[in-house]
Amino acid sequence: MTRAGTTEDVVIRVCGLRMRYGPFEAVRGVDLEVRRGEIFAFLGPNGAGKTTTVEILEGYRRRTAGEVSVLGEDPQRAGPAWRARIGVVLQESQPERDLTVAECVRLYAGYYPAPRPVGEVLELVGLAEQADSTATRLSGGQRRRLDVALSLVGDPELLFLDEPTTGFDPSARRAAWDMIAGLRSLGVTVFLTTHFMDEAEHLADRVTVIADGLIVAEGTPETIGGRERAAAEIRFSLPPGTALADLPAPVLAALADGEGDGARLLLRADRPLTVLGPLAGWAESLGHDLLDLEVRRPSLEDVYLALTANEREAAA
Ligand SMILES: Nc1ncnc2c1ncn2[C@@H]1O[C@H](COP(=O)(O)OP(=O)(O)OP(=O)(O)O)[C@@H](O)[C@H]1O
């Protein structure tokens, strides 16, 4: 999608980014690219370098080395007109005391050259009914919505969302996800930092994982880390009265190493139907339903944990 003043498809371009705090190098040569209109998830364990990178992109921190372009400008040198094109939702914020929700949003609207209408923004974040409530009386989830409203009122092209659903109950998370997904239709590019893999999987068009200051993987949630090529895992319990040796040969051949002695068996198969077909036929011939049969590909969380295992071991 093209917005006034910009025709570029790449909103953020980072090349060889390095950040040193004294002798410690927190970011060690990061390259990344975020395209216009996408929801981009930036994942990584504690201390990986996410906040450092994001603060550099937002223009709040000076880098040690590397090239950075955000909306066509170097954040280190960009001025207020550039800043007005960017929205930032931090992890924690303090609402203005004694102002209503609508008054808070109106106050922020005054800081921008071309704000969105206040009513439209409240509608967008699902706070229209709370417009006249005092901001300090909002629930935690509603307060985060207000934070998003305050960052959207300037009509930003690029929105940085830092852990937007931390502390939310499951239904508030779902509602927040719907709201964030809805930003796509506005053409807003979203740079999302999160620790929740299901959140990245649900929302992101592309995911990048940083660990120990280096990018360790990037791709779509479906393909990152070779996920789509990874073997499927098949779990089931042996039907009563049967033994391992009774299983058909293709099933036995897929038995994962060391997984043949527990109550529940684990098989791995690149082509699951080559195992599931014989297994189902065998169970049916015995009159069993394999009620606890489970087939799954590695989740984004499985892939993430494998990608970041070294760093987490080092931190333990
Ligand atoms: N101002 C600073 N001075 C010195 N070291 C810092 C500073 N800020 C961050 N660090 C260090 O840099 C590394 C990266 O920190 P950063 O906050 O970027 O990680 P993060 O990925 O955002 O972590 P988290 O998920 O815990 O927020 C950490 O080891 C941290 O201790």
Automatic annotation (TrEMBL):
Keywords, alphabetical: Antibiotic resistance, ATP-binding, Cell membrane, Membrane, Nucleotide-binding, Translocase, Transport
Molecular function (Gene Ontology), one example: ABC-type xenobiotic transporter activity
Family of the protein in this entry: Belongs to the ABC transporter superfamily. Drug exporter-1 (DrugE1) (TC 3.A.1.105) family.
Name of the protein described by the UniProt record: ABC-type xenobiotic transporter
Domain of life per record: Bacteria
Chief location bin: membrane
Cellular localisation: Cell membrane
SUPFAM superfamilies tied to this protein: P-loop containing nucleoside triphosphate hydrolases (SSF52540)
GO biological process, one term: response to antibiotic
Enzyme Commission number(s) from the entry: 7.6.2.2
Enzyme class: translocase
Gene Ontology cellular component list: plasma membrane
TM spans (from-to): none
ATP-binding in keyword set: yes
Domain ABC transporter: 12-237
Membrane topology, as annotated: Peripheral membrane protein
InterPro entries membership: AAA+_ATPase, ABC_transporter-like_ATP-bd, ABC_transporter-like_CS, ABC_transporter_ATP-binding, P-loop_NTPase
